[in-house]
Amino acid sequence: MSEPGDVPGKIPDMVPGTAPSAAPGAVLFACGMNAVRSPMAAAILAKLFPGRVYVKSCGVRAGEPDPFVEAVMSEIGCDLAAHRPKTFEDLDESGFDLVLTLAPEAHHKALEMTRTDAVEVEYWPTPDPTLATGSRDQILDSYRAVRDLLMTRIKKRFGWTATPGG
């Protein structure tokens, strides 16, 4: 969402002191398709650090919205019903401090995209829950496992700590 005075295509400056010390100001999560892992990760980071880290997600390919993602993310209070998958080329902004890739093809694309920029790119190998088979409950469990793995990695990487009473 833009604010008055924002420059299109540029990540807004963060208010000093609002980003956690271990976190960069602007983060991009990338995957093979921007339908499952990368939107999950972006929503988790935004939920853990509301208004303190600028976060977006994209994929090598756009993909289609996934109802299993919506289901498991709603369990933790994240509404992804309005998420529309996008590619690297669809991004309206640049200047990310950190790109976190969740699949090999996204990592290669991110390295290619950022080779002339001073951007940190990290690869977090993350299982693809769309490969799960079985009953609806078994498939949902696979998606939950990926969601929880991403939550754990994000908390560790960005230095999240629980606030008293919450």
From TrEMBL:
InterPro entries: Ptyr_pPase (IPR023485), Ptyr_pPase_sf (IPR036196)
Name by which UniProt lists this protein: Protein tyrosine phosphatase
Keyword Ubl conjugation appears in the UniProt entry: no
Organism domain of life: Bacteria
Pfam family name, one: LMWPc
Keywords carried by this UniProt record: Arsenical resistance
Phosphotyrosine protein phosphatase I domain sequence ranges: 25-160
GO biological process per UniProt: response to arsenic-containing substance
Entry keyword Cell inner membrane: no
Organism this protein belongs to: Stappia indica
